[in-house]
Amino acid sequence: MDIQSVRGFHDIFGKEARKFRKVTQTARNLLERYNFEEIILPVVEFAQLFQRSVGETTDIVQKEMFVFEDKKGRKLALRPEGTASAVRAFIQNKLYALRPYTKLFYEGPMFRYERPQAGRYRQFHQIGAEVFGVAEPHADAELIKLVYDILSELGIKGVVVEINSLGCKEDRKRYREALLSYLGGVRGELCPDCVSRMERNPLRVLDCKVEACKSATARAPKITDFLCEECREHYEKLKEYLKALGIPFRENPHLVRGLDYYTRTVFEAVSDELGLTLIAGGRYDYLVEELGGPPTPALGFALGVERLMLLLPDEEQKRDVYFVIPFGDVHAYALKVADLLRRLGKTVEYSYRKGGLKKQLEFANKLGVRYAVIVGEDEMRNGEVTIKDMKTGEQRRVKLSELEEGKLG
Ligand code: HAM
C-alpha cells in the first residue's frame, strides 16, 4: 500500500496494546482510589490557549504545536498537553463554584511536532491529574505519592523522583537577575540555543542537555537560595511530608520544566535506565487567574503512557480461552454452546478456522487457548460437548445440562 501512517504517529497493537491498557488501567484505578473525577477534554483548542499558558517562548509553542486554520480562519491547535485545557474547562464551566476544591483527571492523545525517537512521538498519550483550589504543601506531597504509587503498582524500578521549587513571581525575578549575571560570565561556553534562551527564558538554560552547557551551569546560583520565607516554608514542608511517606526523592536545583506556568513545587519521575522523564508536574498557582478565572492555586502531573510502556515486560494474554470448534454442519448447536459458556462468564472464541480436527487443534495451540470445546455431530445428537484441556491433553465428554449447572472446572 502506498499510504503510510504519518511520521511520529503510531498504531499500537498486540502486546503493545496490552501494555497500553495495563498502564492506563493501573493509573485510572489509583486515581479513583484517590477520588479524582474524570473530565473528557477536547483534542482541539484555540491555539491562543497554549500561547497564554504553556508560554510564547517555550519550545512547545514556538516549534512543536500542530496549528491549523478552520474554515473561518480561526487558529486552532491539536493540544500539546492537558493542563491548559483542564484550566480552561474549570473556568468555562465554573467548576470553582461547585466545591471548595476540585480534583480532575483526563486521558488521551497529545500532539507535539518533535523529532521522533524511542519514547518520543508526535502523537503520544497522557493521563493527567489536576487539583484546583489547594495552596498547602500536603496536596503536593499527596500528588507525588500518587505518582509513586502508579510506578510501584506497575512494578517499575530504577526511577528517581526529582523535586525543586521555582518560588513565586518575586522570587523568580530576583533569581533571574542573579542567573543572568552568572550566565553573562559563561556565555562563551554556551550552545547557540542557550545564548538565545538567555534573552527569552534564561531558566531554560539550566535544562539544556548539551554537555558544554551542563558544565557551564554546574555552579550557577540555585533558585532554592532565592526563595521568600513562604515559598521556602512550603518547600521544607513538602520535603518533610515526602520523608514521612517514605518516598525517596532527589533535589535537583536545575529542574525547571519546559512549560512556563509553574510556580513553587516542580517534580519529575526520571528513569535512570532510559534517561527519560516518565511522569512530570508541579504547581501553577497563577494560571487560573491569568486565564480569566478567580485566583485559584493549583497543581498537577501527567504521565506519558508510551514511556511507561517501555519499562514493562512483555506479557502473554492471561485469559483462559474456551475455543469452540464446530465440526461439521453443527453451527445451530455450536453457537448455542458458545453462548452458554459466555453466559457462564467464560472467554470464548468461536473458531472460524476451516479444515479438519487436526488443523483446528493445531490452530488452538497456536492461539494458546486453554480448552478446546469440540462440537461434532455426535455431540450434537447427544446434547454434549467434548472438552479438551490443551495443557494436560486430557479430554472428556460433558452434557450440556451439566454445563448449565456450572460444572465446568
Ligand atoms: P510534560 O513534561 O510536557 O508536562 O509532559 C508530561 C509527560 O508526557 C512526560 O514526562 C512524558 O512522559 C510525556 N511526553 C511528553 N512529550 C512526549 C512525546 N513527544 N512523546 C512521548 N511522551 C511524551 C505536561 O504535559 C504537563 N501538562 C504536566 C502537568 C500537569 N503539570 C501540571 N499538571
> Mind telling me the CATH superfamily name of the largest domain?
Bira Bifunctional Protein, Domain 2
Q: Number of helical segments?
A: 15
What CATH first level of the largest domain would be assigned? Alpha Beta
What is the share of helical residues? 25-40%
Count of DSSP strands = 16
Q: Give the helix/strand class.
A: alpha+beta
Mean pLDDT: 95
Q: Main sheet: which strands, in order across?
A: 1-5-6-11-10-9-7-8
Low-confidence stretches: none
The N- and C-terminal alpha carbons lie at a distance of 47 Å
CATH topology of the largest domain: BirA Bifunctional Protein, domain 2
Q: Which range does the strand content fall in?
A: 15-25%
The domain count comes to 2
What are the bound molecules? histidyl-adenosine monophosphate
CATH architecture of the largest domain: 2-Layer Sandwich
Account of the 3D structure:
- This protein is of the alpha+beta class.
- It has two domains: 14-168 and 228-309, BirA Bifunctional Protein, domain 2 (2-Layer Sandwich), CATH 3.30.930; 321-404, 3-Layer(aba) Sandwich (Rossmann fold), CATH 3.40.50.
- It has 15 helices and 16 strands.
- The chain has helices at 15-33, 47-53, 59-64, 83-92, 137-153, 169-186, 192-200, 211-217, 229-244, 287-290, 305-309, 331-343, 357-367, 377-382, 400-404, and strands spanning 37-38, 44-46, 66-69, 75-78, 102-111, 123-132, 159-165, 249-251, 263-271, 276-283, 298-304, 321-327, 347-350, 371-376, 384-389, 395-399.
- Strands 1-5-6-11-10-9-7-8 form an eight-stranded mixed β-sheet.
- Strand 3 (66-69) and strand 4 form a beta hairpin.
- The chain is elongated, with a radius of gyration of 28 Å.
- The model has no long low-confidence stretch (mean pLDDT 95).
- The structure holds histidyl-adenosine monophosphate.
- Histidyl-adenosine monophosphate binds at residues 81-83, 112, 114, 119-121, 124, 126, 128, 130, 258-259, 277-282, 300-302, 304, 306-307.
